[in-house]
Amino acid sequence: MKLSYRAYPHPVVGNADDVLDTAFQASVEVYNDGVNYFLRVNVQCSSKTISKLVKAGDAVYVLHVECSNTLYRQAFEFSEPTKEVMIPGDNLNATVEVNLVARAKRDIKRYRIENAHPDYDNTAFAINPGDILAVAEGYIFDADITFDALRSVSSIVQVRERKQAGDLPMDVDLNGDKITILLSKQDFENYKLIRANTLWSASLISTLVLPALIEAINCLKHDPSDFESYRWSRCLSRRIEFLGLSIDQEPLDLAQRVLELPIRRAFMSARAILEGSD
Fold this sequence. Notes:
alpha+beta
């Protein structure tokens, strides 16, 4: 449930310029104990109207957590500025969206809010239970990031056949949750054949994933804001941080360290094949 600006029938704090000079924000902290995920939320609301309604029980804060990969969806109501919820780890996988709103709990017959946009002309609105009164900017996190994430290449990298016909070179698409390596039809058929062999598949890391990862690191280094919404970007950044490395290192060196020296492993696999054929 990714919230966006909407045309509500009444002024909503945080929805474009419905209510001027008024903030409704939430800081979200996520951690886990290896079994469960914990979300700690701190609400910051500068609207006296909203705060009074919540304190009186006429409105409530709602934390909405949704994971499209597992179809988990749950709303948690609370009235205090701080709330912590626990979610079993099995319920969350990959990208998780977190949104915070304030919504009415009871009928409010003549609702007005301070600093409403002049277009509302001091109009009083009839509010029904469930109507949204304030929205905060959403928060996204990855629930399946492990420090070994890049050892399983499929976690952030996928290989696809190019749509264009012809003898074309490899290409890399970074505009998605996974880094997509695009191969010509012939190359893709060879890739499928080789990946089925455990020993030979190691060579694919150096010939396919390594250059793709270099390209991804280059983009993160120079234009991080363009890719921060993608899962591969967040996962890769976590991996680099865990290894004690820096995105400012040379991309070729950094990519090899992140992938744990793939060229050496490719040589070892090739040598094993050669020695096994003697």
